[in-house]
Amino acid sequence: MYGCPREICHAHPLQRHAYRNPETPEMSIPPGDLPGAAFLQCTATGERLPSERLIGLSPAGKPLFARYDLAALGGRFTPRAVAGREPTLWRYAEVLPVRDRACRVSLGEGFTPLVESPRLARTLKVGRLWVKDEGQNPTGSFKDRGLCMAVSRALELGARGLAIPSAGNAAGAAAAYGAAAGLPVHVVVPADTPVPILAEIRALGAEVRLLDGLIGDCGAVVRRRCDEDGWWDLSTLKEPYRVEGKKTMGYELFEQLGGRLPDAIVYPTGGGTGLIGMWKAFAEMEALGWIERKRPRMFSVQAAGCAPVVHAWERGWEEAGVWKKAATYAAGLRVPGAVGDFLILRALRESGGGAVAVADGEMEEWVRGMGAATGIFVAPEGGATAAAVPRLRELGLVGAADEVVLFNTGSGLKYVGMEPLG
Predict the structure, then answer these.
(1) What is the mean pLDDT of residues 224-228?
(2) What is the distance between the alpha carbons of residues 141 and 227, in angstroms, rounded to a whole number?
(3) What's the whole-number mean pLDDT along residues 165-182?
(4) β-strand 64-67 against 297-303: which pairing, if any?
(5) Which helix (H) or strand (E) element contains residue 308?
(6) What is the rounded CA–CA span in Å between residue 383 and residue 419?
(7) Which uninterrupted H or E stretch holds 266?
(8) How does pLDDT run across 321-338, given as a tens digit for each residue?
(9) The pLDDT of residue 4
(10) Beta carbons within 10 angstroms of residue 117's beta carbon
(11) Spatial separation of the C-alpha atoms in residues 52 and 294, rounded to whole Å
């Protein structure tokens, strides 16, 4: 068992104790260390690897998934068992990779509001519509889920320094959780990253390098420095644990909808970790007996100026490749190539979903439309999800009676001053 540094444990005393509801003690997280992942598995070849060491991609160069002994958990990890737990993503501790409770680095992430909007449903001509507002995470975006888990696991497995290439929000989250863990963080971001995000990163103590390029260029710099300086690379899907934090959005939807899942999920897709993670969660939930075989149709939304997944889906490809000259003001969607592209496309096809692209101007219009209808100041990526629904209705992929969940992945405040392209 890997232990955490004494000073880290003392810095976060509340994290050393399981949440216990005095009214329902049987619903508390069981005492003692948690089982963690049974093994890691290559998502392309199925090869199994040990989970208890720092590891990035599989030998095949593909993302690894953490796998759990779900058969052993089935009788005790139930919806009733989690109902009285703390309202953070750690309520799902049995299917998360951190074994040592003292290594949980938490800022209160997860269990974000799921807001119903009948007015937006009428405007978009669907039966029922919800907005999952990830902008209410600690640093204002859904990236907190993944970086919370990745940093916690890196701490547990002995990392001494962290690095991440980012379009913006992931760097802010890495800086926050690295600071909470007491680990140095090095970030490389494009020079045109939104100013509020840069201010956040610097305020949280991370070392920042601005690069005249896109996230792929930033990733090349991070890989070189990790090799040279021994930093641990937190790049999207290039370590196994960011996806584990993101998958908790799927478990939360089930709980927040009263024990069911929606007909459709519309998700803004850059690296796609959240969509991939939710699809993984639904498979786990079926194995655990939480849900039947039927799952939501998954829809990926990208910017017209950077739409590799949409391009691949329309052509029936299994991988997306790299988009040339990526351009959009939605920083989270400006990802020309995703290491998990085949996993995104697999989830879209297995679910009966699809992918559409929207222009920056449409995103901007729907940022205002969603705000007026819901009271939520969404990021451009959130606006993209609403902009996608009329297109999905025209294609017959979303019906008039469908219950739809739109994911707003960040706060609009982080984009103040940014102008749409085109």
Answers:
(1) 88
(2) 29
(3) 93
(4) unpaired
(5) helix 308-315
(6) 14
(7) strand 264-268
(8) 899 999 999 989 999 999
(9) 55
(10) 20
(11) 34
Backbone CA torsion sign across 390, 393, 397, 400: positive
Q: How far apart are the C-alpha atoms of 18 and 369, rounded to whole Å? A: 41
The answer to whether residues 195 and 168 touch, using CB atoms and an 8 Å cutoff, is no
Q: Output the six-digit token pair for 284.
A: 């786990």
Show the CA angle centred on residue 246, arms to residues 243 and 249, nearest 5°.
145
Question: Per-residue pLDDT tens for 15-35?
Answer: 323 333 333 333 455 555 788
Please report how many Cα atoms fall inside a 13 Å half-sphere around the Cα of residue 107, on the Cβ side.
24
Please name which of 280, 328, 325 lies closest in space to residue 301, comparing C-alpha atoms.
Answer: 328
Write out pLDDT tens, residues 362-416. 999 999 999 999 999 999 999 999 999 999 999 999 999 999 999 999 999 988 8
- DSSP per-residue string spanning 145-208: HHHHHHHHHHHHTT---EEEE-SSHHHHHHHHHHHHHT--EEEEEETTS-HHHHHHHHHTT-EE
User: For strand 39-42 and strand 64-67, is the pairing parallel, antiparallel, or unpaired?
Assistant: antiparallel
Q: Between residues 167 and 65, which one has the greater pLDDT? A: 65
Shortest CA distance to 57 belongs to which of 36, 43, 77, 38?
A: 43
Return d(Cα 112, Cα 144) in angstroms, integer. 11
- Average the pLDDT over 162-180 and give the result: 92
Supply 61's token pair: 């160069």
Its sign, for the CA torsion 287, 292, 294, 297, is negative
Over the chain, what is the mean pLDDT? 91
Q: Which residues, other chains included, contact 248 with Cβ-Cβ below 8 Å and sequence gap of 6+? A: 89, 92, 96, 110, 145, 277, 281
**How far, in Å, are 102, 245, 354, 384, 398 from residue 14 at the CA level?**
9, 20, 43, 38, 44
What is d(CA 8, CA 26) in angstroms, rounded to the nearest whole number?
A: 29
- Whole-structure pTM over 0.85, yes or no? yes
Map tokens 């199925």 to a residue.
46
Q: How confident is the model at residue 239 (pLDDT cuts 50, 70, 90)?
A: very high
